[in-house]
Amino acid sequence: MNSKLIDEIVSLIPMLRSNALEAERRRKPVDEVFQALCDTGVFKAFVPAHFGGYELDLPSFMKIGIELGRGCVSTAWVTTFCMEHNWLLAQFSQSAQEEIFGTQPYIIAPGTISPTGTATPDGDGFILNGRWKWATGVMHADWVLLSGMVENAGFPDLRMFILPIDQVDVIDTWYIDGMVGTGSNDIQVNSVYVPEHRAESVMQMAIGRGRGSVWHDRDIFKIPMLPFKCITAAAPAVGAAIEAVHLFETRIRERTLFGSSAKQQDNPAAQMRLGRLNVRALWVEQQIIDLAQAIQQAGCEAQACPPRKRAEYRLTAAMIVHECRNIVRDVVEASGASAHFLDHPLQRIHRDVHTLACHAVFDLDTASELYGRSRLGLEVKGLV
């Protein structure tokens, strides 16, 4: 466990808290905060050791994401995804990694597996076209990771392509009621040539078997991609739930109940609610650490993680996030109307977590169906 890096991140949490409202106003992470995060080296977490990276263990990754989520959910979301997207690059060919990691210590890049682009074979590469939504990290990016279907391949050939940021158009679409500070605008690409070495099979990446994982032959690069993505997205929600409970405990010590002179902390109902909320927050924290450990262990196995386990991990992450959302909802419900003032952190946490929980990987119906089908031995449709 990388305790030094975790300690450096913890030291930045007051800075994240004090800039959370400003991130929302700017509709992106505050530049000074993002630079402070860069200065810790946190984005080297999943850069291969061959290039000076940390190859961080997943429980440490979760602790970092949770702590960041306590400070600012939007900034935490951008940070954990940009950390994880270096793992995506580590799945690419040796020549792609030497081209990029060989000249810079890490990338800041949005990444999408949505197949909304098309790639037309052209000589030793592809012509990429398309538009992609939800480009988390794009406001500070130097590269982008975009998925597209290869045309005329004769089979569903979904690939991920990596391009420099100056070859794409960033479209200002991020007008939303939660996760406002992520700046997750749209990306558009018009007839850009991408060499073959900067294209990788998404299906091979999904099982941690991209060309780069074979080259490095390290357990961390053999973990399943989508479960990894799920915990990447879930960690800030856990931090948000923990922070909300902390704010509630602080609030009831000071709050006077309407129509009386009694402090809320003296109300047995408030005491019981606080007790339950604290235990629920501890539960989701332990659950995500345990899930991260299980996903990490999957990378140690000789065979790629099977679809049933990948579906189980996805559903578990979704259930953790939905419980985080419920914890925050219950805190806000008990905190009185003044918690809804725009300068109060609880209302922002409430909006952020409800928006975060809408991410496609956390759709409980889809995740439950995938896992249920796998338990019954039926075909598992879609990417898991």
List the helices and strands and how they pair.
Elements: H1 3-26, H2 31-40, H3 58-71, H4 73-89, H5 94-100, E1 117-122, E2 125-132, E3 143-150, E4 158-164, E5 169-171, E6 186-195, E7 199-201, H6 202-206, H7 211-216, H8 225-254, H9 268-298, H10 307-333, H11 345-356, H12 364-375
Parallel strand pairs: 1-3
Antiparallel strand pairs: 1-2, 2-6, 3-4, 4-7, 5-6
Keywords:
384 residues, alpha+beta, Butyryl-Coa Dehydrogenase, subunit A, domain 1, Butyryl-CoA Dehydrogenase, subunit A, domain 2, Butyryl-CoA Dehydrogenase, subunit A, domain 3, 3 domains, seven-stranded mixed sheet, 12 helices, 51% helix, globular
Query: Reading side by side through the largest sheet, how are the strands ordered?
Result: 5-6-2-1-3-4-7
Helix share bin: 40-55%
CATH topology of the largest domain: Butyryl-CoA Dehydrogenase, subunit A, domain 3
Largest sheet: 7 strands, mixed
Return Rg in Å.
Answer: 21 Å
Q: What is the CATH class of the largest domain?
A: Mainly Alpha
- How would the global form be characterised? globular
Number of helices: 12
What's the architecture of the largest domain, going by CATH? Up-down Bundle
